[in-house]
Structure formats: C-alpha cells, structure tokens
Amino acid sequence: MDAYPGILVGADGSSDSEVAIELGAALAVGLAVGVTVVTVWDGYTNVPEPQSFEWAREASETAQAKLRSLGVTDVSVLQPTGTPADQLVAVSADHPDSLLIVGGASLGNAKDRVLGSVANRLSHHSESDVLFAHHTLPARWQSIALTTDGSTTSRQSVRRGMQLAHAMGATPHLVTVAKDQEEGERLMSASIGELEFDEPDTELVRDVLIGLLPAKALVEAGPDYDLMVIGNRGMSGASRLLGSVANKVTHGLETNLLLVNTSSD
User: Is the dihedral of CA 207, 255, 117, 42 positive or negative?
Assistant: First the structure.
C-alpha cells in the first residue's frame, strides 16, 4: 500500500473547513504531496443565498493562501458545480487513491444528517479514504490510534495509519476492544504477526480497551489520540442499518477520524 499521491480538501469558507485546511496542510507537508482545494458552487439551488462563481473564487483563494502560509508549495483548485455532497462523492471517485479531508462537525448531529450532511454522505459513499476533521492539532502530533479487531480489513486500515504516524512523527497505538487484557493481547499479537510495516523500527504501543461494546469504548477513548483510524467495513448495506462499529464510531467520535476505504485495497 503506497502513501497518498495527493490530498483533496473541501473548502467552503466555513470554520469547519478551516480545520480541514489546517490538517490538510500538515499532512501534505509530512507526506511531501500537493493539495487540491475543492470548492463546490451552484448559483441556482444553494440557500439562503445562491453561491456564485465569485463566492467560489474567493473561498478557493482564501484556502490556497492559508495552505501556502502553512508550507504547502503545490496547490491546485477544483470548482465543480452542483450540490456539495454529490460533487465531492464524484471527486472521490475520480481520485480514489488520494486522501479527501472535510470538516466533520455535522457527523454527530442527527438533524444535519437528515437534512443532507456532506460529511455523512461521504462517510457512506466516498471511494477514497476520508479524514473528518474535528479540531486542529499542534505542530507535532503525539499519537495516532490504529483500531483493529483482528480482521483482514482492519489490518489494511492499520497499515494506512502506520504510514501517517511515520510521516507526522507521531506514536502509533494499536487499539483493540476486548473482554479482558488477555483476549486483547491475543488479538493484537495475531494482527501484528500478519502485518508488514515499511518502518519496522517504529515504536508501536498496544492499547487494550476493556468493554463489551466496542463502538462505545472507541468513542470514549477518542480524546486520548490526535487521530483515530478505522476501516469502513459496515458503512453501507445491512450492516450500516444494524449499527456497525464503524458507523457508530464515525457518528459518535469527536476527535479527528480517518475512515479508510478497505474495499478498494
């Protein structure tokens, strides 16, 4: 699994997208890749005021200036027209290997989800990995949680998280939920045994969360980490309706979340 060849950042001038821009800049510098600013505009359907091309130009230019001030030298712009959710899903399909970053504040709001949250739509339909930004981080990241349940798909997301931890100089924490410490150690040992890390000397901390409800345990542990990484298994179909762990974590977590599209790896 190679590192992301580029980063896409949704920018609409909101405080939510400001957080996404700052995280996007940090990751772009760490990974040594460029950033594409994506500003969706539609002069006919957006309310309360139609968003014109001039609005899109200003939002994009502001985002570009911010990225450059944070050390990103390769910055480009996309300004598709249409509804933001539809267009960002389309952008993810056009760039499935890139990392898409958007503000994640609306994920925890049931009303926003019903009314058409862009982040919610992406969590279920994006073809690229999506980082949902909830808060900015210091220049030096401390810890990244790599969640695993021992499955093949979770190992794919762990590998992706390891790449980011190495790029950002953060300590990777392999995190699992189990009924007791012994079971947790067994799950993690099995996972580590099947993982092939590009940086074998990287410190890997093992965190076992004791609890019968994995999603609840992960959400409660979220504030302990700068970023939590989880695979998107169960984000669509019957699993989503039945309340998958990934779905509950995505909508309950208040820390930065990387949702890895494990179906494409």
Answer: negative
Per-residue pLDDT, averaged over 32-48, amounts to 78
Cα separation, 49 vs 83, in Å, equals 14
Tell me the β-bridge partners of 102.
Answer: 132
Q: How far apart are CA 73 and CA 83, in angstroms?
A: 29
Residue 41 gets which letter from DSSP?
A: B
Q: What is the mean pLDDT of residues 61-82?
A: 95
Query: Domains in the chain, ordered, with CATH?
Result: 6-133 (3.40.50.620), 143-264 (3.40.50.620)
Would you say the C-alpha torsion 110, 252, 264, 87 has a positive or negative sign? positive
- pLDDT for 30: 93
Phi, psi of 191 (to 5 degrees): -65, -45
What does residue 263 show for φ and ψ, rounded to 5 degrees? -70, -20
Candidates 21, 45, 51, 219; CA nearest to 137 is 21
If you average pLDDT over every residue of the chain, what do you get? 86
- pTM for the whole thing? 0.90
